[in-house]
Structure formats: C-alpha cells, structure tokens
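Dissemination and training. As part of the outreach component of the grant, students in the summer workshop were shown how a complex can be specified as a set of sequence lines and then modelled as a single object. The example used during the hands-on session is reproduced here so that future cohorts can follow it. Participants entered these lines:
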Amino acid sequence: MYDLIIIGAGPAGMSAAHEAKNAGLNYLVIEKGLIGNTIYNYPVGLTVFSTPNELEFTDGDLQPAREKPTREELLSYYVRFALDNDLNIQTEEEVLECQVRGQGGSPTFTVATTITEYHTRTVLFAIGAMDHPRRLSVPGEDLPRVHFQFRETYPWVRKRALIVGGGNSAGEAALFLAEEGADTTLAIFRSDWENNDPKQGCIKYWVKKPLEREVERNCLKLFFLGNVIEIRDSEVELETESGERVTFPSDVVFVLIGSDADLTTLTDLGVETTIGKHGTVPIYDPETYQTNVAGIYIAGHFTNERHIKGAIDAPKKIIPHIAEALAKSNSAR
Ligand SMILES: Cc1cc2nc3c(=O)[nH]c(=O)nc-3n(C[C@H](O)[C@H](O)[C@H](O)COP(=O)(O)OP(=O)(O)OC[C@H]3O[C@@H](n4cnc5c(N)ncnc54)[C@H](O)[C@@H]3O)c2cc1C
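and obtained this result:
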C-alpha cells in the first residue's frame, strides 16, 4: 500500500515526487512515456520562452548557455534532477483506471496500469494537457500527411508545408519551416495574427517579429483564414475571410490548434469539472489542490495553472497537506 501514487513525470509530477521523498512518504510515479515526456516532444532545437527561474526546482540549478534554455538543455536538466534525486519513477507504463476502495474517512484506491495494479491511500494526477490534440473536424484530417505535433523541420526542406493555427506552437513551427527552406504557408485567423496580448495565448513577440521578417523576405506566406474546408491527397481547400474558396497544393499539413487533457479517469472517480478559461478543468481547492473526491489531488497544466512554474510550485502546498492528512488518519486508527 503506497501513501501516494503520482500519475505523470512532467515538472508537476517530478516536483511532487521530490517533495514526497523529502516528507518521507512511500510514493511511486507512473509515467506512460519518458521522464519529461511533454518536453521531449517539443520541437528539436526549440528555445523555450521561460527564463530559468520559472523552470527550475531549486534556484540557480538550471544554467543554460544563453538567457533561456533550449528543449535539449531543459530536458537534460529534468532527467538529471530525477536521476540525482533517485526519484521513484516508472516510465512507459500507462494508468488506465483508478477506483475507490472503502468509504468514509480513509478511502484507499486501486490504480490499474498497462502492467499491473497498485494500492494507494492518495493519488495525485499530474497528467498534463497534451493527450487530445484539438482537431478541425474536416474531411481528410486522418490522412497520414496531416500532423498534430511539429517535431522538426528537415524532412520538409523544399516541400510545401501548410500550418493551421494561431498560437505560439503554430508560430514557432511556421518560423522553423520558413527559416529552413520549406515553402511555408501559415493559415491563421486575422484576429489571432493581430492579437498582441500575451495573456490570450497569442504568438509571442519574439516569434512574431522574425515571422514578420520572413513574410517581408517572401519566405513565409500568410493566409487569413475563414475556414478549412477539406484536406485532400496533395492539396488543401481553404476559405478566405470573405468566403472565397482557394486550393493550396501541399505536401504536409500541421494542425496546431492546442490540446486538451484526458479527464476520463478523474471523472470516472466522481471528480467534478467546470469550464475554465482554457477549457474543462476539474474543480479543486486552490489551497490544497484536493478535488471533491477525498484523497484525489491534481497539479499542473490541466488545472488553472498553465505554465511550468505553477506546475512546480503546486506540489509544495499539496504534499505537506497529504502528509498531514495521512498522519492524522494514522493516529486515528
Ligand atoms: C512547444 C511547447 C513549448 C512550451 N514552452 C513553455 C515554456 O517556455 N514555459 C512554460 O512554462 N511552459 C511551456 N510550455 C507548457 C509546458 O510544457 C507545460 O506547462 C508543462 O509541461 C506542464 O507540466 P505538467 O507536469 O503539468 O504536465 P506535462 O509536462 O505535460 O506532464 C504530464 C505527464 O503525464 C503523463 N501522463 C498523462 N497521462 C498519463 C497516464 N494515464 N498514465 C501515465 N502517465 C500519464 C504524460 O506522458 C506526461 O509526461 C510549452 C509547451 C509546448 C507544447
């Protein structure tokens, strides 16, 4: 019987593991991919937008060569953190289901994975929000040349690449592709292109400026989108803002319009959700991060805290609360 099972080894899960270890809890992290899987999936060579103080577990630990770390520097830092602290993380094992056992003051939980079943007194979901890439719901979206993630540019040099999206991920992909010699078109709503409010998930200015430069140099085409109509074998049909249909020849299409968490395991447990600024979020106590189901906690990207700093900071409140609740329940036995 574990004190705590943590689902996910991103920044939130690793911070929780570190805190749990320091608090003397018997814990386990179960990760379906690799340590820092979301960061592993960032585009190769990307420079992230946060500064080290927003990304590190301990002040001054992350020392990138420049002001902000690359994907590789950040991933290496997180992997080293897990190894140096000997965190109890099992990778390439997916949590499929979680069930409550026993009612009243001290429920316990069974966590079923692709490999086995575990028993635990509390569960922290640190599952991120990358499970379901959002889709356009248009014909042709299932074709193999349509991608919902951008990993690297070199397969697309001298190819015709169309990116659909209005946020930073779409902007970064368009920039990588345009700079490295793909024939690149960014299909974006005019309101997204003209939006400069960083709070609204627009393209960050240090991505936007070089994108504008690529447009001026004729290395990037902008298409102000009304609608995507259909993706076909070697072309895409789009609609302009005024409703005119245009067909673009294209070798590859990137649909980068955000992603959502898979909340099924939580809702099956009876955790209640609400519609927040960024989509559906579980309801939780902002101090303890406990949901309406006693013993079930959440942290990280699929809560109201969307960035790594919030993902790292939340467990510093959650774990002391769990340790105290478990100690109380032990002494009541
Ligand atoms: C390209 C890109 C650049 C970004 N740049 C920045 C930046 O500069 N600064 C910043 O603050 N944020 C940035 N973000 C957002 C940042 O990645 C997230 O805020 C951060 O990863 C959240 O950490 P987390 O631990 O909550 O979730 P994640 O890092 O997503 O970790 C969740 C983990 O849970 C695992 N998991 C999910 N379901 C299960 C399951 N059923 N069983 C087992 N494991 C499971 C996943 O595999 C994953 O490893 C960026 C995002 C992208 C896509």
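The mean pLDDT is 95. Students were then asked to discuss how this feature might be tested experimentally.
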